[in-house]
Amino acid sequence: IVEKDRFQTLGDLRKQWTESGVETSRATVYRRVQEMGYRCRIPQVKPLLNQKRRQKRLTWATEKQHWTVAQWSKREMPKCLKSSVKYPQSVMVWGAMSAAGVGPLCFIKGRVNAASYQEILEHFMLPSAEKEEDFIFQHDLAPAHSAKTTGKWFTDHGITVLNWPANSPDLNPIENLWDIVKRKLRDARPNTLDELKAAIEASWASITPQQCHRLIASMPRRIEAVISAKGFPTKY
């Protein structure tokens, strides 16, 4: 039964045994599974990657294989985070990081489309781009990011955008940064929308440039992991 479907839970196994006339407890099922040499694990959730996407990831990683940490440090990486407290209250947040640390936060109202995304870039990203030489911007392939009008916005403003493979959160260190923020939010336990926003701002402000640099410095290892995995998802 286990080998037929490795994603079954102990509850699923117990139910099948009960239906076949074997009365047993969950603890007994657990012991029997252990005695048979199996171990209970929570499966990791990874993006679906077909052969074409895996090949694109592998090609992308091979092209970036010899980039140094200094080269990766020239990127600015943004991401949106959606956090919620007691339903239906929730908030969408946009933020970016670079080797210098985190940038300002933007709380977003409504859905993010190409027009609203460009407005965020105008007010929250562009000031940073204008201060730095050799500025490179990186974002994923969300519809608002990959829209033609957004591409034209970057061209009109003379900003270089790093090409990016689809379904590759394991290559983006800002995902780990948001995980740090989420853990801090669990400790804060906000109960209202205003408390949630304040907790997010405090968590974001507590991120140090050293933390950002360590995450960016992991890029060569992430690249090697994708190449070793032949384009499949990695531990990151």
Q: What do these coordinates show?
A:
With 236 residues, this protein is of the alpha/beta class. It has eleven helices and six strands. It has helices spanning 10-19, 26-35, 51-63, 69-72, 114-131, 143-146, 148-156, 174-188, 193-205, 209-216, 219-228, and strands spanning 75-84, 90-98, 101-102, 106-108, 136-137, 160-161. Strands 1, 2, 3, 4, 5 and 6 form a six-stranded mixed β-sheet that branches. Helix 3 (51-63) packs across helix 11 and helix 8 (174-188) crosses helix 9. The mean pLDDT is 87.
Count of beta strands: 6
Which descriptor suits the 3D outline?
Answer: globular
Percent of residues in beta strands?
5-15%
What is the number of helices?
Answer: 11
What order do the SSEs take from the amino end to the carboxyl end, as H and E?
HHHHEEEEHEHHEHHHH
Largest sheet: 6 strands, mixed
**Gyration radius, in Å:** 22 Å
Average pLDDT across residues?
A: 87
Counting helices, strands and paired strands, the structural category is alpha/beta
**Quaternary status:** single chain
| Terminal Cα span | 31 Å
Fraction of helical residues = 40-55%
Uncertain segments are none
Short description, anyone?
InterPro entries: RNaseH_sf, Tc1-like_DDE_dom, Transposase_5, Transposase_Tc1-like. The chain has 11 helices and 6 strands.
